Amino acid sequence: MNISCGIIASPGVVKGTAVVMTSPDDITKMSAGAILVLKKSDPSYAECVMKASALICETGGKLTHICVVALEMGIPAIVQVEEATRQVHTGDTIYLNTYDKKIEICE
Amino acid sequence: MNDNLEKYRRSLESAWGYNDYNDWPIKFNSIMHLFIKEFADEFVSDLEKCRKEYSTFTIANAFNNPSRIYRIIHSVLCGMKRSHRNIEQQRNIANYMLELTACLKIGSPFNEDGRNLILDNIDDLFINKSISECEKNKIAQICSILWSYSESIFFRAHDITKEFHGLYKRSDGKQLLIRDYFNLYPYQIWSNIPLLPINSIRIISMYPPNLYLKIDTYDHLFLEQGNLKNDMIGYRIIIDNKDITLESGLSIVEKSLESIREISKWSKHEKYPEIIKKYAEIYWFRKKPLCDLLKKDWHVPEAVYKKIDNGTPDIRFSNELSAREIQFFINTIF
Fold first, then answer.
1. Which of A62, B7, B58, B150 could staple B158 via S-S, CB 3.0–4.6 A?
2. Domain with A6 in it: what CATH number?
């Protein structure tokens, strides 16, 4: 299933397992190499982005700080992905390709 | 309106057009009415006094880095509007602040070539040229955490703490990106939070000629080609003017995380007035260089704290701005 892509904040191609977070209290759920899916960001999520292989966020813009963290870590980031935290579930396999503007939940 | 003012106005399009919609710890637009007028009144008055006593270069140097001046212009203009200062007065202040910014740059105050005065002999700079994948990852972690640390300790006013500049092209075609961090130990703002026990960090990373990165005058990074971590071919880390090894630099990550977690906890548990007061303190800290030149106290006046206690956030300004609203607000400047 494809999810409509938002704004590309950092480029790249990744396939990995999603970890969905809706509150900073979920930070402990993060696992290394996962694709982090957020509703909105604040600085406390930085440590999760540092472990992630990609970032998807429902809100934010190209210059949102969490996206700069993704840029510094060299991982892809897409923001303004509508209802990402509702459509993606923790454990889903996601294929993300910013060059094709594609976010796919693999079957 | 002169060219510089028009360029300044257009630069806001980039900043607002890629709106970062940042509402942590609170949406600034919804609380600025509680102190921005008082802030701008003091700022303009202090700046005028400084102009009578000091040269433009001395005033600019007190701010240390150009984005600390450039990024505050809009807040000063907003406050001046609320004080019913006329357009000519607003233009004069903006022009002078652009002049101050230009003092700290090689070229234009609008970062058209990305360089600052800070660095001019790049070919002679020592750079560690042997770098493993693991080291790239560690450097990226330090750079990443410092972004978040800056945002945590100064909220949106992170110009107090950072200046990114470059890319500087060396004669061999390789390029240097300089990330400078200052004021990393603002104990005056966060007396009860563990902070990084250092004042400044410079991280220099070297890239091949085919990495394209632009840095605008707000220190926003626009990567057009390449990868900031994977394409790194050299680095150097300097803390408080001393070269340090990557391993000792890594202690920054853990210590910064501790501060970020504490401030995040603080923001979750504090009530609105306390968060707004903290924002006001950060704003007054922004203009501390002027107070230092005038040898006067820089702290927030008691009247501002009272105004915050008696006021509330304006929920009309809690939402994201539409493209039309952004254009409208840009057109109302000057």
1. B150
2. 3.50.30.10
Residue A15 tokens read as: 């396939």
**For each of chain A's 107 residues, which pLDDT tens digit applies?**
888 889 999 999 999 999 999 888 888 999 999 999 999 888 999 999 999 999 999 998 888 889 999 999 999 999 999 999 999 999 999 999 999 999 999 97
Contacts of A61 in chain B (CB under 8 A): 18-21
Instruction: Give me the residue from B18, B24, B228 closest to A72, CB to CB.
Output: B228
d(CA B38, CA B92): 19
Taking the C-alpha atoms of residue A97 and residue B37, their distance in angstroms, rounded to an integer, is 46
ipTM: 0.95
CB contact under 8 A, B147 and A65: yes
Provide the residue count of chain B: 334
Task: Give me the number of domains chain A comprises.
Answer: 1
* Contact in structure between A50 and A30 (CB atoms under 8 Å): no
As given in the structure block, the two tokens for residue B77 are: 């203009």
Contact B141 A50 (CB under 8 A): yes
Give the domain range for residue A71: 2-106
- Helix B36-53 with B302-310: angle, nearest 10 deg: 160
A interface mutation test: which of B12, B24, B146, B269 has the most A CBs within 10 A?
B24
